[in-house]
Amino acid sequence: MASKQTVPRKVLIIGGGFAGLECARKLANNDSFAVTLLDRTNHHLFQPLLYQVATASLAAPDIARSIRQILSDAKNVTVLMDEVTGISPVEKTVTGKSGEVFRFDYLVLAAGAKTGFFGNDQWEKNSMGLKSLADAQGIRRKILSNLERAELTKDYAERERLMTIAIVGGGPTGVELAGACADLIHRSLKSNFRRIDTSKLRVILIENSPKILEHYDPEQSDYAKTRLGHLGVEVRNETRVMDVQKGKLLLNDGSTLEAEAIVWAAGIAANPLTKDLGVETDRSGRVTPNLDLSIPGHPDIFVAGDLTNMRDRNDSFVPGVAPAATQMGNHIAMLLKEEVRLEATRFADRKHQLRPLFKYTDKGMMAIIGKNAAVMKVGNITMNGFFAWIAWLLIHILFLIGFRNKLSVLLGWAYSYIHNNPEARIIVNPPQTP
Fold first, then answer.
1. How high is the pLDDT of residue 185?
2. Domains and CATH numbers, the chain
3. What is the CA radius of gyration of the chain?
4. Mapped to the 3 state alphabet, what secondary structure does the chain carry?
5. What is the per-residue pLDDT across 242-289, written as a single tens digit (0 to 9) for each?
6. How crowded is the C-beta side of 16, counted as CA atoms within 13 Å?
7. Among 130, 134, 355, 369, whose CB has the most other CB atoms within 10 angstroms?
């Protein structure tokens, strides 16, 4: 007698970032699951290197790869480019901007985060975030276009404003971007202009806290500040932004900083889809899930990555970094596979109670500070300087997806290191809306 065919569980994954992609890869070619991955773009993005696209060190294709291409051998995974507009946990449906309604047995919400302005969303129109390829290309276009305009103008005040870059936020993103901007302007482009002196360009890093990189050791924070100073970056600690207006920042000491390029790297806000889940969120819209990563009251709905604000089973805080997101995606996939296995045993009615609890393995923290210098912290081990920079390079190459991406980035870095002359400096204006 033929065995009964099991109907595959419908797993719907929202987001092709580190968490969503890892979950899909771990469920690939498993006949127990029919997986659909939805993303509003067609590519997986290696976000830790976005700042290098923003500062012309790398081109966009170097740090992005087609999700379809990555999952092309996963016969049970369907990839669709659609933007999710609503989630109904009770009906177990998701609605796309296309109008299609997707049904699920399990939902993995890993839609990532956007730039957050601490409730001052009106500041967005006068500043630039760094969360997507479009953001990175916009920053690069703005910086390079400002230099071209500065070369043309004879108005001293306008030239000074065009040659000022203000970066708000002294975390890893802000520090790495500030160092890369200083390298780009003061080293790579110093011989490219005739009317302006690029050494006069100001890169100003603004941080509300007493220290930049405040989650690192104090000695590393001091090292980073000193290193940025050597690169020509002005670091302003204990400085809070009160308002962001067109071409200027109003600061808490009553002063005004005029800057044509303003980059906001001070906060994040979770994808607003978390509001549809019917559970409590923090001020950034993040969810505190159960320790198995499901949301309270809905064991079939999981959240992962930047959408979470949680501590793991060992009461260790889980940071919003790529390794944590990858581990979450892996955990959810392993949990689902184990749950399917238990359904065929006498423990089927206890499958939710027997779920493994998430444990975060800390891979450490790293931040690069211009050319030849970085800070690294792994547990109680810290490293600063050139060897930390080498470790940063190797680890980021290792985690890039695809041989072509790794080779392209490696060759690009080698060329830039030798020649101090990044190639990705073409200004392409966005298409005009008719």
1. 80
2. 9-40+82-115+269-350 (3.50.50.60), 121-266 (3.50.50.100)
3. 23
4. CCCCCCCCEEEEEECCCHHHHHHHHHHCCCCCEEEEEEECCCEEECHHHHHHHHCCCCCHHHHEEEHHHHCCCCCCEEEEECCEEEEECCCCEEEECCCCEEECCEEEECCCEEECCCCCHHHHHHCECCCCHHHHHHHHHHHHHHHHHHHHCCCHHHHHHHCEEEEECCCHHHHHHHHHHHHHHHHHCCCCCCCCCHHHCEEEEECCCCCCCCCCCHHHHHHHHHHHHHCCEEEECCCCEEEEECCEEEECCCCEEECCEEEECCCEEECHHHHHHCCCECCCCCECCCCCCEECCEEEEEECHHHECCECCCCCECCCCHHHHHHHHHHHHHHHHHHHHHCCCCCHHHCCCCCCCCCCCCCCEEEECCCCCEEEEECCEEEEEHHHHHHHHHHHHHHCCCHHHHHHHHHHHHHHHHHCCCCCCCCCCCCCCC
5. 999 999 999 999 999 999 999 999 988 999 999 999 999 999 999 999
6. 29
7. 369
Please state at what angle helix 322-342 crosses helix 18-27, rounded to 10 degrees.
30
d(CA 268, CA 248): 21
> pLDDT of 262-275, one tens digit each?
999 998 899 999 99
Q: Which residue(s) pair with 270 in the sheet? A: 113
Residue with tokens 């002063």: 255
Q: 176 catalytic, yes or no?
A: yes
Q: To the nearest 10°, the Cα dihedral for 311, 315, 316, 319?
A: 10
Q: What is the pLDDT of residues 35-65, one digit of tens each?
A: 999 999 999 999 988 998 898 888 888 889 9
Q: What is the spatial distance between Cα 138 and Cα 135, in angstroms, rounded to a whole number?
A: 5
Average pLDDT over residues 367-380: 90
| Residue that the structure tokens 């202009």 belong to | 193
Q: What is the mean pLDDT of the chain?
A: 90
Cα-to-chain-centroid distance, residue 318: 15
Q: What angle do CA 182, 183, 184 make, to 5 degrees?
A: 90
In Å, how far are 29, 163, 166, 185, 320 from 18, measured between CA atoms?
19, 36, 29, 32, 11
What's phi and psi for 34, nearest 5 deg?
-110, 110
CA gap 113, 272 in Å, rounded: 9
By DSSP bridging, strand 33-39 and strand 9-14 are parallel
At 359, phi and psi to the nearest 5?
Answer: -125, 125
Catalytic residue (choose from 22, 176, 207, 339): 176
